[in-house]
Structure formats: structure tokens, C-alpha cells
Amino acid sequence: MKKLLYTLTALLAISNYAHSQEVVYPAKDQKGFMYITNGTIHVGNGTVMENATIKINNGKIVEVGTNITVPTDGVQVFNAKGKQIYPGLILSSSDVGLKEISNGVRASNDYAEIGDYNSDVRSITAYNTDSRVINVLKSNGILLASVNPEGGVITGTSSVVQLDAWNWEDAAYKMDAGIHLNMPSFVVRFGRRGGFGAPGAAPSDPTKIALDKVEEIKNFFREAKAYNQENTHSNTNLKLAATKGLFEKKQKLFIHADQVKQMLVAIDFVKEFGFEVVIVGGSESFQIADLLKSANIAVILSEEHALPATEDDDIDQPYKTPAALQKAGVLFSLNDNSDNTRYRNVSYNAGTAATYGLTKEEALSAITLNAAKILGVDDKTGSLEVGKDANIIITAGDILDMKSSTVEHAFIQGRKVSLENKQTQLYERYKYKYGIK
Amino acid sequence: MRKIKIFFFGLLFASMLQAQETFPVNGVADKRDGSYAFINATIVTDAQTTISKATLVIKDGKIVAIGTSGVNIPKDAVVIDCKNKFIYPSFVDIYSDYGISQPQRAAGGFNFSAPVQINTNAKGAYGWNQAVHPEVDAVKQFSIDASKAKGLRELGFGSVLTHVKDGIARGTGTFVTLGETKENLVILKDKASAHYSFNKGTSTQSYPSSAMGSIALLRQTYLDANWYKTKPAKEGLNLSLQSWNDNQTLPQIFEAEDKWNEIRADRIGDEFSVQYIIKGGGNEYQRIKEIAATKATFIVGVNYPQAMDVEDPNDARAVSLSDMKHWELAPTNLAALDKANIPFCITSADLKDSKSFLANLRKAIEFGLSETKALEALTKTPASLLGLYDKVGSLETGKLANFIISSGPIFAEKTNILQNWVAGEKFAVKEDQWSDIKGNYTLSIKTENGPIKYTLDVKNASTANVIGKDTLTGKFSYDGKQVKLSFSTTATKKPNEITAGTTPAPQGTPGGFRRGAPSANYRLSGMSNGLSWSGTGEDTVGNKITWTATFDSAFNAPTDSVKKKPSFNQRLAKVTYPFDGYGWEEAPKQETILIKNATIWTNEKEGVLENADLLLKDGKIAKVGKNLSETGARTIDGTGKHVTAGIIDEHSHIAASSINEGGQSVTSEVRIGDNMNPEDINIYRQLSGGVTSSHILHGSANTIGGQTQLMKLRWGADDEGLKFKGSDPFIKFALGENVKRTTATQGNNRFPDTRMGVAEVLNDAFARAKDYEKAMKLDPKTRRDLELDALVEILNKKRFITCHSYVQSEITAAMRVGDKYGFTFNTFTHILEGYKVADKMKAHGSNASTFSDWYYYKVEVTDAIAYNAAIMHQVGLNVCINSDDAEMARRLNQEAGKIVRYGGVSEIEALKMVTLNPAVALHVADKVGSIKAGKDADIVIWSNNPLSIYAKSEKTIVDGIVYWDREKDLEQRKKIQAERYRLTQKMIGEKKSGGPVRPAEPSWQEILSCGDHGHKDGIYTVDVQEVENLKQ
Fold first, then answer.
1. Would you give the distance in Å from CA B308 to the centre of its chain?
2. Closest Cα to residue B306, out of B330, B290, B284?
3. By CB distance 3.0 to 4.6 Å, which of B47, B610, B766, B933 could disulfide with B376?
4. What is the ipTM of this complex?
5. Contact B855/A342, CB-based, under 8 Å?
6. Nearest to A104 among B858, B999, B1030 (CB)
7. Which domains does chain A show, CATH number per domain?
8. Residues of A with CB below 8 A from B680's CB?
């Protein structure tokens, strides 16, 4: 076989072919050995290796280091000199492939089912590998995502998908990895600003109302536990049966909660049912970081680029919340739930966290290895370590900082995936129109 | 039949004094003169004058004499001894809806998802807007409401101005006494006032749906009414405008209810030479200087927010410092008005529990309001405002006999109002307190075995002890005439306790004795004849008895039971500007600042200067260069720092009270500048991101939205002080999905429903504007139309458009309308398909203001690309990157950084997209946008390359004033924490001491948006649209 040495410029030139989105093909399986050489490797676990090489075989990382011998022929080699090499980024919680155009196009939305207890509803069955969001995400280095339903109290099960696939069965990276629960709110909205004006009638005790709902949810799980202890049933109950994995610790319970009280109640689900619990949202998690740590609850911080929750909060509170969790030793990941940019900016969320107290490598872990751990896929991905899938991105510079973060290559399971998308295609089209080079 | 007789008796009694000539009498005429003389009283004739041992003589409902010596007591007068009593003119409330039925609230307002109501639902020859009904006369709806009258009299009021509290122009109010004779007789003035507000009330018409819409509607109505005076044939009869004009001679009362609204109302008045009397909301103290500048007389209440239950720190967290401070400071409001010499009246209208009126008023006095001013505000000031001081408001010969008799000085804590006389007719309030019954009485019960004697120790009208061998349990009541007493002959264990049970009597339990006392009771009932009482009863076994009680000795108040007044050297919250946690106690000052040895991004031909100095002086950039020095300057070491011009956000929706007037498709008459909100915390937050100027745009609810406002982020300034002075005026237009109301889930019924229609809305508007301009020139009597005025300004290049737009078809169509009518679309904002028609935009002369990387949040942005800015830049357009989002505005430098990534624009050019380029687009590049001597000192000092995510603004300077200083911010956080702690403890103390508390109410942060795209609301954030829906 002849030596296939791609230079980076040559690769960029390839993307200049004018394809439509429909012929941006999912990449074929990676076969044999492949090397990414001479780059700065950010392993994802805090380690950085300068001038290092990754050896890949059949889609798996087989060696990472600075003294790896690269054969001179018969292998694919990507020279990443002067480039940064990172694990593929992971969206910890999303509606990718379920919500196409949220506003005004109901038909394109499959993310919220009717009903309160939808534990049997599976996001993977509606996941659309051809969503136009997906190729944009890849071009921003996001290679995996957890996809979860959003409707009701128990919204259904989430699955982790890799973002370069023909169909959802190909895409599934870990199916039904978690069950999602919207914790009832302890804050009830009423009236206008206090003090003056005419506030509406306040509910007598929002806390009690919320706790009653929590009790109802707990009852659901108590019955589910009992149900799943028996194998034969005269009345099959899909909702109860669907939670079996939680009790067997094959699934995690993702509790969507932002308020302190919601999160305190979430601790109950660990104590009473022994569930592995992950908080999604976590706006006020900085206030109870030590409690979350001692209950072994992980946190997915939904949106770093958020306004402070209250007028009096430190104006940079959401920016520095990750540092508070890091300090307390809480396992956390950073997510991007912006509907306006469709989650493409998760790396900049991490960048802001790095500006406000995390080290850059800690910030990177928050969008790679930590996310993989939380989603239960760290045996396969999340870091550039031997034995894991070769889910890798190569960038021009610091991925956390906008101006240098151009993703030049991305590999999923060693497969070199196209970074082309509708945006790059339209860019080419209009460069052509205006004669821009 | 008996019941009916009683009913008639009552009726006759009530109308005895002032029978109406024209009404028939069923029976024998019973005209009386109502002649009374009140002697030995302390009479406070007005706030300045008190006469002791004075006499007041009234007859036929009027005062006929008042004074000390020389007052002749007519022989036919009933003489009432008022020894130890005080007589005051009864109070006047001019903000009442007494006797008017509450208008029913209907759903209304503009809602993004609901159909609109373009025209009024009111039937008849009235005006076009359902919320403007000056033709409503309260006098025609008024009817006596005995129970409400009683409630008001108990507070000391004798007459009120009442009106229909509904709508923007509410019609006239009528002035009535609180008598109960007949409507014909209690109405003192049929049309006494005209009333206005910003609140459309029960109107179901979509317009206006915003504060600025209400303002525009009022302004237009003034113009229309003036024009209507010329009797324009085309208008026909317009009863609303006719009434509006008729009402102008009356006192004009405006319900504004919040300090900024009060200032806004006053500005409308100034424009049309009307001085409103302004109904305030109680937070005037927060901006007392601006309030004083209105020169208005205010009507304010004494309703204070209740303490909140903040024991749970999680609940407490949601309550803002400003709300807690307002709780503490609300009782200082009247004192602040007093101190600032702002004339005011006091109303009881806002009180949920009217019984708290006097207590709250006393609290205001405790907090510094002078008693004289308080009394004036309840008497002379309101009466004079209505021109009715010749009838009410003081005690003078010839005036109405409207007065109250109290047991002491009216503002003293233990004083009770005993009687309230309305037009010479007596109404009892707390007559049981008239005579002091405290003391020891000899109770003698006549039984078959002879009299049994007890000592009756009367503490007050509801508490007494019966003392024989022991102190006995029982119940006592005295209502001024009737005495009731029941007691058991069995002694209790604690004879000296007034509340004789083993547990204290629950609150509200009448009598000092415990309820449900042992069964064998004496039950006595009788009447008081001064200091001796007598009556009948039953003994413990049911035998009939008679009894008497005679006064023996006066009650000696134990000296230690006098309640001490709380000391008033307690610490109170400071009024900060703005009234937020992050507000200033003292505003920062303009400084001479020398920044040394920094990397300076000039945005000028000098490019980026390394190791350079920058001198700011007198609010301007004085010098840029090397080795600068300036004596007396504050020197800032810029080593390792980057200095740029302040960020300018071309598209923002912060700092306004309303953003969208969606009631119609063309609303060019509304102005964001009419409703600036200087207290938006996002001003401060955005300063921390280096923003120094923001262009506050109307939303995208309609094709031709409102006039925009360019502002500088002068945190702490008032609404006028925020405005960027001397800048060209702009207006917001919008195209596409939002204006055709794609997301109206209940269907759209407002034209346009397609982009074809949008183009026609534009064509039609400018065709009308052209015709209007012509007509104005030909005939100056042409009706002035604020909507068309703004469009004519566009035609004459005196006003410029920033146009929300996305797809190429609509962009091109808009430009062609501009070409047709000879104007340019100055800026296309959002413009996510601008890259498709960049060449056309350039030819047309437009600027572009876009998002860096937003896409795919609705159908019209499916072709949005992150390379848009780069392409437009390369085609030669002036490109800006805007926020349209209160959070992202804090990171606009990073958004510019993305343009380096997407399309390879140079760092220098990318930075210009958030600084100089928006300055150019907004026509203020001569003042801001680059670092050049002579421009405004609007500067940011960054910790890092400004396009980097690692850059933080260390200082943000506007006009040479450091409004943001990262180090000072850290200090401020500590202050906020300390002050929150103090107030939380105080509220908890309030709860512990048994004071009334309400559940902690989160201080919602209202986030306004253009309605274009989703915003993630935080836990304590509400979308204003959501609030509007909640209110319905």
C-alpha cells in the first residue's frame, strides 16, 4: 500500500468540493493503523503532552506518547504539527435529533411526549441522524451527545449517540443510558415585583405543593421497585418495567433541577432507592457543592453563559459555578443548551469556566472525560487513552477560545468524519458569487 | 310587617336632617335645623391653628360659629360637652372609587400567540380606542354605599373624590360626602376632576399593549382633541374628544403608581401644558430629586409592604435587596416628600386592610413626617386642589359641618375617633370610648336575700374584674350605652391577672375573662346613665334580679404600663442610585485618568499601539501616545493590559419598561425613550463586559415598530441621563416571521400574514406619509399624526431605520420600498441572510448588524451561517455584531472573536464590529467607537486580548467616569451580603415579635426581549410577556 500522507492544507482543499448536505456522507470504518503525529495532546484527564503521537488501530487508540515510532509506509498519518489534539467533545444533555426547528414548526419537533410518567419513552427511537444541527456540531468538535426527551415529570430514557451515522441504530453509542426526571419546582411564579404593584395571590405554601409531588414521584419508584422484583405480572406495566435498570444500576437517574431545594430532594433518591443520580441544570449547585459531593451526585451544568439567578447574585456567578464544584470535588460536566446557537458553543462555555477559576485542562475535562463518566461511556470515550475509541479532534489552536478554535479534523471511532455542513456549503456558494478567495 | 316598619324608621332617621324639597313625605313633616353646639373642645381648625376650650356651633349641616369667647350658643342648639375631646376637620380622600362599582377585568393586551383586536368594542359615537373614555362621568354611576362609607368614616374621612378606576382616559370624578342621606344631597360637585393612567384596564382592544404605547396614545389624543376643536367635518361627532376637551378645565389627576411612571406622566403634561396631580405608588423617596422636579402635587398612600417570611434562607435568597430595602424604607416616603417640600395628599385607597390607615400614618410620622403636614395632606391640600376649600378641609364658619371628634390628638397612638360628623349629621365611630369608664364601681345585686356587693374594676370597654372575696371569672362589655356582664362566683387561681384564665386569652377574644368560663354564671344586662349603671339579670340558679353599679374611684394608670416609643436612631437602609443592590450610595465622578504602558487598540489608522499611554480628561480622550504625563491625573498601570474603545451594542432590549407595542402593524409613534428603566441590573452587568453604549430597540412584533433610544451605560443616572445626547434618532422596523405572527398558535388575524403583505405595509405607510406631508404644507390645520410624523422624518432623512430582517427576499423588497420613496434602510439588523444580498445592501447604502453564530431557531434562519459577517465585511459592508440578548451582551468581545474564526477576519477588523462599526451605523462615530483625541472617554481596560475568551474588563469608563471596576465590585458584593443579612434578621425579628408576615415573594427579574427567539429564563426570571399573561 502506498503511503497516505495528508497535509492539513490538502485536507482543507477537499472540503471545497461543493456538495449538498445530503452528500456529506458518514465516514466508513477505519481499518488498520493510523497515526496522528507531532501535536499537542490534551488527554482530557488533565495531562498535556507536547509533540506527541496517537496510534490508532481499527478505530481504537492503541498507543499515546512522545516516543512512538511511525512506520514510513502502509499507514495513514496525520501530521498535526503546531496543532492541538483533544478528545471529541460531548454534549451531556440535549435534544439533538429530536428538535429540528422549535419555533413555529410543530411537525419538526419530537422532544416532548404527552403524559407525566413517560419512563418507557425512548429518545433513541426518534433520533434523526440527518438533522441539520448535527453536521454543524461536528464542525465545532462535538462528536457525541446524550439525547433526552423533555416532556412530563419522568420524561423518558436518554441515549448517547455518536454524531456520524446513517441511522439511529448506527448512531447509538449507549442506548437507554439514563432516565430523566423533571424535579417539581419549589418556586412558584406569581405576581409582579414585590414591594409595590399588585401581586397576585400567592400560593399558600409552594414548598408543600412541591413536596407532595415529590412524594407522588417516590411512590412511583416504590411501586416500580416492587413490580420489578417479580417477573410475571397479570397486568403488564411498561412504565414501571422501564425503570428496572435504575434499580440494577445499569441506568442513571438524571434529575433536572436548578434550585437548592430541588437538589436537596434529589439526594433522597440516592438514599432511598440507591440510584445513581445526576443533576442536570444545577444553577444553584454552588451553594450545596459539598452536600452533592458527599451524596456522590454528579452535576451537568446546563448553561455557563447565563445571567445570575438573582439581582443580588455575584454578576459572574454562573461563570464561576464550575470552579466551586471543582473545588468541592463534585464530578461535573459543562453543557450548552442555547436554542439560538443550537449547542455549538460548548467549548466556549468551558472557556468561560477557565477564565473564572478552572484550569484549562479542568475545563476541557468538563466537556470530555467528565461528561463521559456522567453518561457512563468513559470506558469507551472521553479521553485520549489506550483502549478507548479514537474520538479525536484536531484544532488550529486553543479549543476553548473562539478566535483560535477552528476544528480542522475530527475522528469518530477512528473514522475521519466530514466537517462540511450546510453553513460551510453556503459559505462556499457565496464566496463563489462574490469572487472571495 | 314589623320588619318593614323598622326599615322605614331607619330610613326616616337617616334623612331627617336634610330632606329634599321635591320628594314627597309619607307622614308628617319633620324638618329639623340640626343645631348643635360642641363646647369645651380642643378644636384644630386647620393644620396651623388649634384653639383650646373652644366651641363649635353648627346648623343645617354647616358651621355657623367657632371660637372661644364670644361664641353665642343658640338656645335651640343641642349642647355636647367635649371636655378632653379634640375636634378636627374630617379628612378628604381624593383618590377613591367609593360608590362606584368595580369595572370587570377582561382579557386584553397584545399577545404573541393570540388574535388581535384592532378596533374598539365600545358602541356609540365615541373615539377609536376603548381605553380612552373621557366621556365616563363618575357622577352618573355613583350611588351611596353605606358599608364603604362607614369604613371610610371610621378612618376619619368625611368626603371623597371618587372616579371609575378604569382605562387610560377615565373620565371625570365626582366629589361626595360620606353621608348617607341621598345621592342628590351628598354630591358636592358633580364633575370635580378628570382622571388618567397608563393602564388600559378592561379595554380588550390590542392597542396599546405597552407603557410606551399608552404614552403615545395619550399624546395623540391631546393632539386629536385640539384638532377636534376646529370641528373637522370628517370626524363627525366624537363624544370622547368632546368630553376630553370639556374635561380640560378640571383638575387633572394621573394615576402613575411608580416613580418612573410619575416622571413619565409629568413629561406628557409638560408637553401639553397640563400640570397633573399625580397618584404615586409609594416609592417616590427613591428618586426624590426627579419627583420634586415634576412640580406636581402627589397623592400617596400609606400602604407599606408587609415583611416577608425569610427564615428559610432558600426563600430569602430569592428576595432582592431592593425589595427588602423598600420594605424598610416605605414608611419614610411621606417624610421624604415632606422634606423635599413636595406638596402631597394622603389617600387610603391602596390599603388592603383599611384599618391600618391611622396606624400606618402614625408610622410615617414616627419616621419623620411632620404632624402639621400630615393633617394638611388630609384636609387643606386635597380640598384646595379641587377648589373645594370653601366647603371642606378646615373648620370655618360657612363651611360644611364635616368634622371628627377624637379622644385625643389625632396622631397620638392611643387616640380613637369617637364620632364623625358629615354635613352636620352624627355618625358614631367609637362612641364607647366617649366617656372614660375606667375605674372602680360598686356593683350591687339585689337578690331575695338582700343585696350582694362586689367591686367592679373596669379596665376598659371590654375588660373588667369582679372582686368579691376573690377575683371572679366572667365577661364584660360596654358599647357606650349598653353594659353586659356575666361572671361566675367561683374564683380562679390567679386572682390578679386581668386575663383570668390559666392561658392568655386568644387575640380578639372580647373581655378580659376567658371564654367558656364555668357554667354557673350571673348574667347581667343594663344601661349606662353616665357614671351609674342599672339593669336586670339572672343569678346562678335562674332567679331574676336587678342590679346597679356606681362609680367610686378613678382608675390610676400604673406608670410602667405606658408603652415606650421605639427609639429612632435605628439604622435604616440607604437610598442608592439605582435602587438596586449594586446601586451607588455616591455616584462615581468624572476623573482625569492616565493609563500607562498598555496595548491600545485605537481603531484608527495607527492600529494597535504597544506600550502606549492614554489620557482621559473632562470626559474626553485627551491624548493617545507614548510617555504622556498629566499632573493630578489618576494613573493606572496598563502593563499587560489591553485598552479598547467601549463596546457598542447595536441591538439591545435592556433598560426599558416595555419593548413591544404589537397592537398594530404600524406604531412609529411609540418611543422607547419614553420608558427607559435606569434600574435594570443588566446595565451594570453589561458594563462588566465592557459595553458603554447600547441601542435600545423596539421589539419585532410589528412591521413598523417604535422609535429607538441610544443610551450610554451610565449606571445610576435617571432615565433622561441615560440617553446618548445629540445622536440621530432611529426607528425599528421588522420583517418576516414575527410580524406575520408565525407563532400565533391561535391564528393570526392581523395584516400582514405574508411577506407580500409586509412589503405592502411599508408601501402603504410611506404613501400615507407622503400625502400627510403634502397636506400639512397646504393646510396647517391638518390633524397632526405622531405615527406619520415619524415616517415623514424618515423621508426627510431626519430619522433612520434599523430593520429586523432575515431572508433575502424580504431584505430586497424592503430596499425597493426605500428606493421608491427615496430613503435608505440605514441598518439591517439580525440579517442572517445578508450574505446572500450583501452586494445589493451595499448598493443601497445599508449597514449590517448581525449575530455571530446563531442559526436554526426558526424557519427563516435555516440558511443562517456563521460566515455571514465575514462575507458581508468582505463585500464591503459596515458590519456590526450585536447581542439582542442581555446575557450575550456581556460577551460581545467574544462574539467578535468568533468572526476571526468564521471567515478569517483580522482581529483589528473583528474588534471594530463591536466598537467602531456600530458607532458608524448609529451615526455617532464622531463621538465614540475609537480611541482618538476629542472623542468621548468611553474606554475599556481588558486583562487580555479583547477578542479572547480569557479577557475580562477590569475597568469600564464612560465619559471619563469609572462605572465598572472589578475590584470595587468585589467590595460591593460584601456590602450586599452584609445589608441582606441585616435586613433578613430584621424581617425575622418582625416575624418573631408576632408582626404580620407574608410568604417570601421572589423578586422576579423581568427580562424584555424582542419576541424573536427563545431566552433561557433563570429561576427567578420572568418573561414580561408571561407576566402580562399572568395579569390577565
1. 20
2. B330
3. B47
4. 0.94
5. yes
6. B858
7. 1-87+382-437 (2.30.40.10), 89-191+200-379 (3.20.20.140)
8. none
